[in-house]
Design a protein that fits this description.
single chain; 8-stranded mixed sheet; 4 helices; 8 strands; 23% helix
């Protein structure tokens, strides 16, 4: 089970010590900004401009992200007071919905720390599902997820490739 901020203020993840806590409504603007800029920079190696604009249109910056996390365990990660990542999971259905790390903090252990916290909230013996972007596939593969199905999905009328990946929990 995920520990509350009072129980676990700092997560040591091998490279950076980040503070992980549950999402609060006051985080919504920073989360939207991180999402937009991460998609348009980190995912640009695997998706074209039309796909990036469909995935993260400029309007996403003004949306209220609080409603996107309803019913999910949503976590945010901070380093030196800056939002550096966020992730959320529909725990009852073991569906990891989103995992994004700031473009300037890739490969610093933040995604691992967020994923560890979410996975620990799921009961042992089940499976976790995620629809991983082409960019995120290697990350999830390294964590023990396997590709169940490669697929083409529609996002705002634009075709994009991703993979349904599954991890068995011991």
């Amino acid at each position: 089970m995920y520990q509350s901020p009072e129980q676990s203020k700092i997560t040591q993840n091998g490279r950076l010590a980040v503070t992980i806590r549950e999402f609060e409504a006051a985080d919504a603007t920073a989360v939207a900004d991180l999402f937009y800029h991460t998609v348009h920079s980190v995912n640009a190696a695997d998706y074209n401009e039309e796909q990036l604009n469909a995935w993260a249109p400029a309007e996403v910056l003004s949306e209220d992200w609080s409603s996107r996390f309803n019913g999910h365990l949503a976590l945010v990660a901070f380093y030196n007071g800056e939002l550096v990542g966020f992730a959320d999971m529909d725990v009852p259905h073991a569906y990891l919905d989103r995992l994004y790390v700031h473009r300037d903090y890739q490969r610093c252990g933040i995604g691992t720390a967020l994923c560890d916290a979410l996975e620990s909230a799921c009961p042992a013996g089940g499976e976790i599902h995620v629809h991983a972007s082409l960019t995120a596939e290697p990350f999830f593969f390294a964590r023990g997820y396997r590709i169940q199905e490669k697929q083409t999905v529609q996002c705002r009328g634009v075709s994009m490739r991703n993979s349904l990946m599954i991890k068995n929990l011991a």
